[in-house]
Write a structure and sequence with these properties.
mainly alpha; 0% strand; elongated; 4 helices; 76 residues
Length: 76
């Protein structure tokens, strides 16, 4: 038997996959789990927001280059 946290992880992943795959919208997947809707809705909304804004979180190439230089200098 999967514990409730593990079960929620499976539910979240399934819902996210369905939404990102274009198979269902947020309210559709939430309606599949009415007993968990209040818990799922904000988590899924956050996941969708992060996905749609993921380019904002990509580090700039200059940052990557300077970080690498600092790391190599620290190692040496």
């Amino acid at each position: 038997m999967v514990d409730s946290v593990g079960n929620m992880d499976v539910i979240l992943q399934s819902c996210i996959n369905m939404m990102l795959g274009g198979q269902a919208r947020l309210e559709t997947v939430v309606s599949n789990y009415p007993d968990r809707a209040d818990e799922l809705r904000p988590l899924l909304a956050s996941a969708l927001w992060l996905w749609s804004n993921r380019s904002v979180f990509d580090p700039r190439p200059e940052f990557i280059k300077s970080s690498r230089k600092r790391l190599v200098a620290s190692i040496n």
